[in-house]
Amino acid sequence: MTAPNHIIGGIVITGLFGSFLNLNILANPIFIASTILGSLIPDIDYTKSTIGKIFRPISKYLNRRFGHRTITHSLLAMFGSFLLFAIIESTFYDRTTTAKIYLLGYFSHLVLDMMTVQGVPLFYPFLRNPCVLPGNPNARFKTGNLHSETMIFCFFLLSLVFLQPLFENGFWTQYNRYFGTPKHLASEFHKSPDALNVKYTIKKGTEIIKGEGICIQASDAGIVLLENNEFHTLNKEKYTILEVIPEHIGQQLLFQTQHFSHISTDSLNALIHQNPVKFIAVNANQNFIFTQNNIHSSSRQLKLNYPNYLSFQEEKKEPSNSSSIPFFPNPKIKTIQSQINLLQQQEQLLQTNYFKKQTQLDSLTASFHASKNLPQKEAIYQKIKQLKKTKAPIVDYAKQQELKAKLLEFQKTDSNKLMEENNKIANLQQEKINTKTIFTGSITFIILL
Length: 449
Fold this sequence. Notes:
- The strands form 2 sheets. The chain has a 5-stranded antiparallel β-sheet. Strands 6, 7, 8, 9 and 10 form a 5-stranded antiparallel β-sheet that branches.
- The chain is α+β, with helices and mostly antiparallel strands.
- The protein contains 14 helices and 10 strands.
- A hairpin with a 2-residue loop joins β3 and β4.
């Protein structure tokens, strides 16, 4: 087979097999060059070939020593040159991508030569028998036949045009793009080495919604996209998912967790705005206000997945009028107060009885002077004589003053204690008002590299 067909056939075959390995040979000119080199290098044993003319001294030696389609058309030469290529590439560039593409290009040359009448000895020098595809000689091509070569070239040219999306996206990506379901997107997301940009078409009621975003999480149940720095969840409960088309963007999607301890509200707000936040868990020394999607809430701890427009602020604290510490007065105060009340009641009772007898005495005296009946006057006189013996009640004011002095002393002591307790409560409240909110927790960031 001629060099043009080996080149275009090598590109098609390498691109096709590379699509299964997520190797896009169209992504870099070096990959194309490696494909062309691999597709031509087996013919270095032939001096009239394109590669043979470039490396004529090597070509002459190999042709004279082994002949055409021998050692360079074997699996031994293919894997041996690949191993050498891979060692060199991994040493200088820490990868083997170009070497893998070279191997597929080399393999394409052997496959195409196997489809010719002559075939190739794949197991040379161990076995010299040619390997062919297919077994019927009449179904194979003749090298140098203009008609056959032209048909092959046209076939590969058309294949290159139509298979270009497959080369660029990879076989499985193109397969998943073709179906465009959440299940296929989840399959692509979990096996993809890089991040995916997803173009979606969904239906909410009768409204058709289209958009696109970076896929953060994907499963058959739901999809989380980062769209214009805002998380958008597509789930079957809320939307009818018509189509989700993934495409690779060549950037790695990383989830980086950062722990923090004893930071202020301003520091936390600055931290969460560094990168999109996948998950956040915070605890604080007191209640704080957090805002998400313009909704304000108060809490002392918080856990959120995929928060949108999240911010934190101090909770405004007002001084409380209620005492949180109960105060118990001295029980002796109540006892002394009872004693004083008892003495006052006794004094009042004695005074009442004394005034009652004086009133009765005045009444009897008036009756005595008004009466003309001697026996009656004698009886009244005896009563008056008996009432005059009643003495005015003697009140022990000293005892009351002593009790009142004790009561005043205890009340003053209790008042001082109550004032101290109120001052303590006020200081605690003021300290609480002046205390800054301190946060501890962790944040998982979404990073694209």
